[in-house]
Design brief:
2 copies of one chain form a homodimer. The first copy, chain A, contains 5 helices and 5 strands. Chain A is α+β, with helices and mostly antiparallel strands. The first copy, chain A, folds into 2 domains: 80 residues, Arc Repressor Mutant, subunit A; 43 residues, Dna Ligase, domain 1 (2-Layer Sandwich), CATH 3.30.1490.190. In chain A, a hairpin with a 5-residue loop joins strand 3 and strand 4.
Chain lengths: 139, 139
DNA sequence: TTACTTGCAAATGCTTTGCGAGCCG
DNA sequence: CGGCTCGCAAAGCATTTGCAAGTAA
């Protein structure tokens, strides 16, 4: 798992008390989730009452620009973040519980690149989200 | 090409003057684009000064619920709409010009279903967007 | 007739920003 | 020290909604 704080330092980001805390919070929350800004704020604010939500917004934006965290905008409206990971992955969202599962599929990645090229484009980014409901096995 | 107004009537939607105009506007604009609410509003308002943007919002939401138009939320923030088409398709967005290209790829569709099933889910919806830049052929 | 629609303006929810004070390097 | 960062409150932006008046069926 990536250590967001460490990565920030490596990238030469000026680290303040708030940024250190927010970085740690995102690292922690990324192990099992994709927190939105408010969730990050609540968590960070618990560790340091002096952190405002404006700072969280500014910080996640900064971290994203520096490529240490990734932003996702699923169909629920708000932006969600996670520490970058070694390997790219996409998401499947449980539309009933909101649970988010990660998966990788090289085949899809390749086809995407091919499709783009066919249309005369170089693929620079993409978004693939699956929305599903749990299959109930009743037998 | 789908006639939104006609489809609305078929689905039993109560058609007001405003809904008729908005339906027609979306049909027209869908032939070569994916208009956002403001674009639909401006166009509809030109035909009938009495159409407010609140009505456009209410109407596109209604049309979407009735399955006569489709909503997309690309990375530019606002919601875009298009008349539903016979065949499902995905989009490639030119990140420099904003141009939107449509494409279909059954292979990807199949893999998605397989991936979902592997994770224990039934796929009910998905989102696939490619973002690219035009390849310049200089030879 | 009567429930459904509308325009308007106010409210919402998420996000950004101007400002003066505070802090990192 | 000097520029970057912060907290706060106000502003922004897309979208939604309460309400009284208007309209389709």
């Amino acid at each position: 798992m990536i250590d967001v704080k460490k990565l920030c330092k490596e990238k030469g980001l000026r680290m303040t008390e708030q940024r250190n805390i927010i970085a740690d919070v995102i690292t922690e929350m990324s192990t099992d989730g994709h927190p939105d800004v408010n969730e990050i704020f609540l968590f960070a604010n618990k560790k340091d009452k002096n952190i405002s939500i404006a700072t969280v917004y500014r910080t996640v934006k900064l971290f994203e620009e520096y490529g240490v965290i990734e932003k996702h905008e699923f169909k629920d409206g708000r932006s969600r973040y996670e520490a970058i990971e070694e390997h790219h992955h996409d998401h499947l969202i449980d539309i009933e519980s909101g649970e988010i599962h990660e998966f990788t599929n090289d085949e899809i990645e390749n086809i995407q690149r091919t499709v783009a090229k066919t249309l005369g484009y170089e693929l620079v980014d993409h978004r693939l989200e699956l929305y599903g409901i749990k299959i109930k096995k009743n037998n």
